[in-house]
Amino acid sequence: MTVREPAAGGPSLRASAFLHRHPTVRVLLFLAPGLAWLGVLYLGSLGALVVHSFWSIEEFTGLLVRELTFSTFAQLGERANYEIILRTTAMAAAVSVACGVLAFPIAYYMARYATPRMRTFLYIAVIMPLWSSYLVRALAWRSIMAGEGVFMWVVERLGLDGAVAAILRTPVLGGPSLVQSKFSLFIVYVYLWLPFMILPVHAALERVPLSYLEASSDLGARPGLTFRRIVLPLAKPGLVAGSIFTFSLTLGDFILPQIFGTSEFFLGQMVYVQQGVAGNLPLAAAFTFVAMSVMIVYLGIAKRAGAFEAL
Amino acid sequence: MRDPGAPRAGIGLRMATAFVFAFLYFPLLVIVLYAFTTQSAAFTFPPPGLTTRWFSVAFADEDMWRAVRLSVLVAATSTGVAIVLGGLLAGAIYRARFFGRNAVAFIVVLPIALPGIVTGIALRSTLSLADATFGFWTIVIGHVTFCIVIVYNNVVARLRRLSPNIVEASADLGASGLQTFRYVLLPNLGTAILAGGILAFALSFDEIIVTTFTAGQQQTLPIYIFSILFRPRAKPVTHVVALLAIAITFVPILVAQLLTRDRGAPSLGR
């Protein structure tokens, strides 16, 4: 490797020396472009959005009224609107719990039993679906859940068609057909976000010293007790970190309910329709404000649970 | 907590692991299967017959190629900008102790911690206030916003493992900042930047939530797929396009994984 520039005195070197003596200038120079983008453009946009939620739409003309009002937020209290918020939050919570339950065994296996080769293989296998389009993976489920598709084929062979029909009739999970039911929506969300849960849970479990488990067992604890009292509390930061993603992604999604959902709206859909077809940006902003607030409260709780160290 | 002396995992745990693994990969097999089915309006299982004609139907579709080109161009541009911004931010953050350091780290993560729809609608309302024409550049603006963190995470992770002495040593030997960057930092950071860039590319290539808000009339590949999703006829065509989308992202991602494997895994994105 040859260094071509003169060793002393060039302008480049003088600039370097200056930056070395003034670390603050150096840091500011490095920060400026990124901060201009994220701090000004992005945070500014978020701020403008919040401001919009305190404006309103003139009912007859449909024009934006730029005056401070809480009337848009008051609209969220209408039954149809708060049901959307509750429905979406409940779905996000249910999906997060299901992801946690499914992620645990594979993460535990990877952390404790897998050989290094096997672990690398499983790790990449978990990550790969994450980076392939979520729309594409949702598409697969539309075929699986189709009336004559794989899911029903398996269900019929197991003689469970009665159970599926019963699920579709229930108000919470049901819908007019298997594809268009909240049951399908739930399964597809769990499928899509599962890798986001497996990775942090695995990271948390990997840091559990084996000696803790041995000590617990030496002290006479049975595996079940060791699991409840030792493994689970130590895995908690990972579970919470994973749930940040599963929760946030479910909360803001407006694509899947259009493919799998029933006529009952979810929050993301409502935002999409209000800012688009309905042309009511303030109401869309108010709904977004709810999603943002829920996430910020959630992030606060997660930070307390030590989730950020587990990310 | 790996346990080399441990007995093999219990049968229950092994079955649960296998089940989750199958759950993750079975749908991808289904995409392949239905790209070849002979039915044009249904997804009967098992398929009544297999054919390759949907591939010629899809590949003859000029709209699809236009969408692929736009997506590749958007992803490449966004990745380029994100590498510069994310790399610089990583360089500023990793060792410096300055007021607001945590705040900066928080802002960087925010676009992927908040639901994508928040980012999308916020940017859309700002851009329309600024009278921007929605098109290529507004899509890029949205994508850069969430791609920065991917590059940033990868570069910060690598910088933390580098000895800070190498930069000092380079300066002591009389190298300018640019020379230090070119001959000392870049060779060490190269694979991290490359891996971060590839991941950012894949993320951008597949993004639909933010894009829906920041795009004008043009269709990126995911938007195109979504638009043909509800066509009653020629349903397998969507599966062919889906296969193409998977192929375009899978290979680079695998490369990114292998690049960073032994030096710690790349941090996960959105």
Labels describing this entry:
heterodimer, A: 311 residues, mainly alpha, two-stranded antiparallel ribbon, 15 helices, 1% strand, B: 270 residues, 11 helices, 71% helix, 0% strand, globular
Largest interface: A-B, 108 and 95 residues
Question: What is the approximate shape of chain B?
Answer: globular
Number of strands of chain A: 2
Query: Mean of residue pLDDT of chain B?
Result: 84
Q: Work out the helicity level of chain B.
A: over 70%
Major sheet characteristics of chain B: none
Task: Show unreliable segments of chain A.
Answer: none
Give the overall silhouette of chain A. Answer: globular
Rounded mean pLDDT of chain A is 86
Topology of chain A as a string of helices (H) and strands (E): HHEEHHHHHHHHHHHHH
Using DSSP, what is the number of strands of chain B? 0
Largest sheet of chain A: 2 strands, antiparallel
Order of helices and strands of chain B: HHHHHHHHHHH
Q: Residue share in helices of chain A?
A: over 70%
Summarize the structure.
Chain A is an all-alpha fold.
Can you describe this structure?
The complex is a heterodimer of chains A (311) and B (270). In chain A, 75% of the residues lie in helices and 1% in strands. Chain A has helices at residues 11-21, 23-53, 71-75, 79-112, 116-131, 134-145, 150-157, 161-169, 182-206, 210-218, 223-252, 256-260, 267-275, 281-304, 307-310; strands at residues 56-57, 64-65. In chain A, strands 1-2 form a two-stranded antiparallel sheet. In chain A, a hairpin with a 6-residue loop joins β1 and β2. In chain A, α4 (79-112) packs across α11, α9 (182-206) crosses α11 and α11 (223-252) runs antiparallel to α14. Chain B is globular, with a radius of gyration of 23 Å. Chain B has helices at residues 11-34, 53-59, 62-93, 101-113, 116-129, 136-161, 165-172, 177-206, 209-214, 221-228, 236-260. Chains A and B meet through α1, α2, α4, α5 and α6 of A and α1, α3, α4, α5 and α6 of B.
